[in-house]
Amino acid sequence: MKPQNLQITAAAPDPALLDLPWxxxxxxxxxxxxxxxxxxxxxxxxxxxxxxxxxxxIKEIGESVAYREYELLxxxxxxxxxxxxxxxxxxxxxxxxxxxxxxxxxxEHLQFxxxxxxxxxxxxxxxxxxxxxxxxxxxxxxxxLVGFYWGDVSLSNTLFRxxxxxxxxxxVDAETGxxxxxxxxxxxxxxxxxxxxxxxxELMDLAAGELLDEDTDEIGIGDxxxxxxxxxxxxxxxxxxxxxxxxxxVAARIEQLNNLGFDVDELExxxxxxxxxxxxxxxxxxxxHHSRRLLRLTGLDVQQNQARRLxxxxxxxxxxxxxxxxxxxxxxxxxxxxxxxxxxxxxxRDLRRKLEPAQLFHEILDHRWFxxxxxxxxxxxxxxxxxxxxxxxxxxxxxxxxxxxxxGEVQDETELGPRGAGDELYG
Amino acid sequence: xxxxxxxxxTIALQQxxxxxxSVSNDTRHDGSSGTYLPVExxxxxxxxxxxxxxxxxxxxxxxxxxxxxLHIEDGxxxxxxxxxxxxxxxxxxxxxxxxxxxxxxxxxxxxxxxxVQPKDRDIAMVFQNYALYPHMxxxxxxxxxxxxxxxxxxxxxxxxxxxxxxxxxxxxxxxKPKALSGGQRQRVAMGRAIVRQPQVFLMDEPLSNLDAxxxxxxxxxxxxxxxxxxxxxxxxxxxxxxxxxMGDRIAxxxxxxxxxxxxxxxxxxxxxxxxxxxxIGSPAMNIGTFTVTNGSVQVGAATLPIDRTIASNLDxxxxxxxxxxxxxxxxxxxxxxxxxVEVNLVEELGxxxxxxxxxxxxxxxxxxxxxxxxxxxxxxxxxxxxxxEIISVAIKPGQQHVFSATSGERLS
Lengths: 427, 412
Known about the structure:
The structure holds two protein chains of two kinds. Helices cover about 40% and strands about 15% of the residues of chain A.
């Protein structure tokens, strides 16, 4: 066997990577090493593998493209864009007969993430599509704000995580992307138009596979992305002018942006010479307003809407305890110790891992509202937790590493065969 | 399943001027040989003109594309080629509307599109999205963008069938992509662009994501398909082999500046400057700068005369000389104009063999070929010298290229 001359480029390489069968084309990797087969549609061969207690995604791709995407994903991480974590690039692979094999890009599988196909193939709330589109619009706006042109926006290049009663979207595939200093309106328009076309195509595909409700209006959903994106972009960037005595509108604009989940890092304020007109325009806005506030108060690092939900509960705790005049930090600390943590620990350990703690807490709060209404009394949080565990969580699929399979769907043994079975990868 | 090479046989696509003109059903495909009878297509044809088109990125001084002047004919396949960072992709994106034009204009046909939105330019980026949808039929995979645009069903089917004929996918139209081979899937992706009947196809390094085998196969398919469709196409690549094999004409860019435009043959035979000479051709041209003494230069042991008109008009006493590996004949050591090369390595490619060697009796020249500082000689693969052996070679008459040592411009 001719030795391979593997080159691993990684910030913190995991030595266990070396044990994987790099001398075999990814397509032929034995089922023992695979966590599952992806079910999405990809132009490349992708496999999921368990490694040192986590799941990694491995994609075979040309060497220069692999390095490029690796660097791009690292840059996106650095500027805090929700995206998958790149682990490294491996080149110099050879088969035992000495034939060169394609380079691979290794990324960390995003825990608790849900591919859109899995979401649509469950019997979900009818507004799932809308919520996914909202999440994607937020992601696209965030990417465009930092100057990232995606070039292939689609549902399959995105992963979704539950975020309280909504979803958060994460960029998975940056292969076609480009980071610019700033995007021109034409670049944004084109990226958005591509997104619309791709999403409608993906939904039409689900419809063709009878995985989508018959009444779904695919084009309407694609159009919704465009309008959601435009609304959000305008709210975040449009300049407004008002009379000099209407200064409250500055604070109102900032509050509006906060409500959308954004902080304003830089607001340009200009007045005309005699000060009769004030013009304001947000220059730098930063997503994660609620997440940052919760992190500062409690040390909990969760997604935007989960944070909003937790903060709301914190506020009602503060009111119920009549501690409006106490330091917010102290109240938050007590809330964490006496409300949040006991609720999570009350969930049996084996069931607790099915959802992220913040998501679990959100669902328990929802459940509490639901059982309270049914019982026509205020059900306590511990009681609601017990009911939630027995009646809901126990029957929920484990979403920690849902690798492209619909919840409850059994991995078909034949799909782990060498090729051609099931929903394999095309293109 | 068998791959039919697309585009064997001669095809004459008749142009029609009405976008939605009907297509006659007179095409027959002889499935056994992959040849076609003429198809009547209907694509609106257009020229593309870059008129002093300039792109300067904010915060940079040097333009990424500097006053590009380039006219692409109706139906022409033009390849933009050059090293990384030369401005080729930027030029393409300017045409697509994805980069602002800071100076000059871009025309598609007679229409100034400099300020037109990308989606209103009537262009198609081919292979932009080649993920196929598994639950949709091949026909739906090709036609879904038309469905989104509200094109009537019958017309979608007609355009899809027309494209499928050209792509040799007719028999797969109602199947799922799973049934297709890798090459056929690439063709479905091309079909997506074809059914839209754009005025111009744009392709930005479309093969860079494919494995080596599929790359060569798809290269051939794209080139022959383009000729069959006759749609004006602008293709970007960093690979000069790809450029030479695919383009009707090639435009070489370097550092944002257009170096030369011409047919592959012109670029190869008469490179306009040292950059093009070194960039086009594989293995690369041997290039060195020599001092001119009494109208001649000293290449190793050989004294080679420089054309008198050139020698008398030099702006310095130095000149850059280039000769391709195949422009050298292995000769007897005593032949006039022979110089000697010590063999360091022989690269055998079956049909050809190349000697990588060092020039003997060298008088401090910077002779190099591409990235190697060795001299490359094509030799008869049946008579391969040993490593360490010294061979004598001479430049074939008329096959040396002379460039100004100061400007790099062609003199011969």
